[in-house]
Amino acid sequence: MSALLQLTGIRKSFGDHEVLAGIDLDVSAHEVVALVGASGSGKSTLLRCINLLERIDDGRIVLDGEDISDPRVDADRVRARIGVVFQQYNLFPHLRVIDNVTLAARYVHGFSKADATAKGLELLERIGLGRKAHEYPDRLSGGQQQRVAIVRSLVTDPALLLLDEITSALDPELVGEVLDLVGSLRAQGTTILMATHEMAFAREIADRVVFLDAGEIIEAAAPEAFFDHPQHERTQRFLARLRR
Question: ABC transporter domain: from which residue to which, for each copy (predicted)?
């Protein structure tokens, strides 16, 4: 598989604190890569850098052959090719579901209202929320709101989907419906880079698991090898803490 995303020597600091200390990572087209690690390991910052919400201090980010870390790049045009879903749903409470789903597509990415609405309704129907299209977000459960946020990120047919701990704000009983949606996206061939603390899900859904610690990639392997036969002592300690 060809590399859709190439990260080379990515460094990012906030003041004197280096959060990313030289990240090298390739993500192939149609691959699902899970980023795991303790809080503060750099997972969320890495995703924000890829989506150009944070400018890197050094290194190179290449998306489908284009150097998107070049400061001259139009960030909005790049973000049109990248879907991103954060921990919080970030839905506008005063807008109906369909308007939340289509807002960025219409006003940032230039979709007509008709095209954006048709695509939004199609995606909502596909995940079983078509009947909720004209409801306000506060009429939906947390799991439904997060699924709407995922649909919003898919309206523009992004080349890459970034998921940042998308189940961390959900009650445990709602986690499954969101993870089921991610599983269906994987089956459709969506390229996904996700930060997650759901280890069982990472094992089941990811093609590769990447362990970050103190802003460095310590180990990257297929799920079975990563979880059953970790090679690095820091990886072994991380997994041992999770099993306690």
Answer: 5-239
Pairing of strands 3-14, 17-28: antiparallel
Q: What are the backbone angles phi and psi of residue 23, rounded to the nearest 5°?
A: -90, 125
Please list the residues that pair with 143 across neighbouring strands.
Answer: none
3: its two tokens? 């590399």
Q: 83-100: b or e for each residue (b if 16 or more CB lie within 10 Å)?
A: bbbbbebebeeeeebbbb
Instruction: For residue 157, give every residue at least 6 positions away whose Cβ sits within 8 Å of its Cβ, in sequence order, or none.
Output: none
Q: What is the pLDDT of residues 55-98, one digit of tens each?
A: 999 999 999 999 999 999 999 889 889 999 988 888 999 999 99
How far does CA 123 lie from the centroid of its chain? 18
Q: Do the beta carbons of residue 230 and residue 203 sit within 8 Å?
A: no
- Which spans in the chain are helix H? 43-50, 75-79, 97-107, 113-126, 142-154, 172-187, 199-205, 223-228, 233-243
Place of tokens 């930060």: 195
Residue 82 parent element (H or E): strand 82-85
CA distance 227 to 235: 9
Query: pTM to 2 decimals?
Result: 0.91
178-209 as b/e, with b when 16 or more CB fall inside 10 Å?
Answer: bbebbeebbeeebbbbbbbebbebbbebbbbb
The answer to whether the CB of 117 falls within 8 A of the CB of 102 is yes
Q: How much is the pLDDT for 52?
A: 95
> What is the model's pLDDT at position 237?
95
> Which of the 8 DSSP states describes residue 53?
S
